[in-house]
Design brief:
Blueprint lengths: L1 E2 L4 E7 L2 E9 L3 H14 L5 E10 L2 E7 L9 H10 L5 E8 L6 H19 L3 E2 L3 E8 L4 H10 L3 E7 L3 E8 L3 H8 L1
Antiparallel strand pairs: 1-7, 2-3, 3-6, 4-5, 4-6, 8-10, 9-10
């Protein structure tokens, strides 16, 4: 999976219609609504503001797509297919369309919206998503230095530590390294 850290913009005229596509990093559905509201204010005369998004949550993947008055399945779904096909999470792609007087037909709309999504996503700098896990350990003092060394090698970091009779440690590390660390210190 991949994510982005900044927004990207792409614009093109297709058969006299002006298409503007923007991809935004998001963390919640409230972020999506905020970006849509901003674009509605920025483009009050646009005929359609279409979008699709994918958000990874602890409960699973949340996704939606919206055709904004275009024929069903010709706008939001092609955008979503590019997000899903490129395994991009925590992003919304919005395409603003100013109608230019030439009807594109269902196939033309599907191609146009898909192309706009592909172009803006191809221009975006994507980062690999690493799923993290939070793990708790109780350690003796003499094992703590070795634990810190092993944790650093596994790209983890300490979130909380409590020193008492033993050391209680909460760490955050890549999920794929969780079993390795637990095998060494449990």
């Amino acid at each position: 999976m991949f994510y982005l850290t900044e927004s990207y913009h792409y614009e093109e005229i297709i058969k006299k219609s002006r298409f503007i596509s923007i991809v935004f990093p998001i963390t919640s559905e409230q972020d999506v609504l905020k970006h849509i509201r901003e674009l509605q204010i920025e483009h009050p005369h646009a005929h359609h503001i279409v979008f699709a998004y994918r958000i990874k949550t602890p409960a699973g993947m949340v996704y939606r797509f919206f055709d904004a008055g275009e024929p069903t399945g010709t706008a939001g779904k092609p955008i979503f297919q590019h997000l899903e096909g490129k395994h991009i999470i925590n992003a919304v792609v919005v395409v603003v369309r100013y109608f230019g007087g030439v009807k594109l037909g269902a196939g033309g709309l599907t191609r146009a919206y898909g192309q706009m999504a592909r172009q803006v996503l191809d221009s975006a700098e994507l980062h690999s998503y690493i799923e993290m896990a939070e793990v708790h350990f109780t350690l003796d003092y003499e094992k703590f230095q070795a634990f810190e060394y092993a944790l650093k090698k596994l790209n983890g970091h300490i979130v909380e530590q409590i020193f008492a009779g033993q050391i209680s440690v909460t760490v955050n590390l890549p999920k794929e390294n969780k079993l390795t660390l637990e095998g060494q210190f449990n």
